[in-house]
User: What shape does this take?
Amino acid sequence: MSAIPAAADVLAPDLEVLSLPEVADRLGLPVNRVHQLLRDGQLLAERRGGVLVVPEQFLAAGGVVKGLPGTITVLKDSGFSTGEILRWLFTEDDSLPGTPIEALRGDRGREVKRRAQALAF
Assistant: This one.
């Protein structure tokens, strides 16, 4: 079994995060399936105090925020590390406005994906 990829503690300390068992509960999945989502790049985690956590904003009613897995894939394929992707998703962008994760949650995924693709060049 491969290790679960995780960034160092790169996000704001006041950002709401969920432990992997909490993510599993919210998604209605066993925790080993959450591990697989992380390994497959469908979700991202960071390590806080030695514990893997997932930003709460990555989850929506019924699952993972629409467009997040595709955005993660585009950025990973462009050579971004997990930490760099997390930072980018939570960095304010006045032209969106807000952060890329807020835009994804607000059904502006095409614009976020377009910007992620532009970062590759």
Remarks:
- DSSP finds six helices and five strands in the chain.
- The longest helix spans residues 109-119.
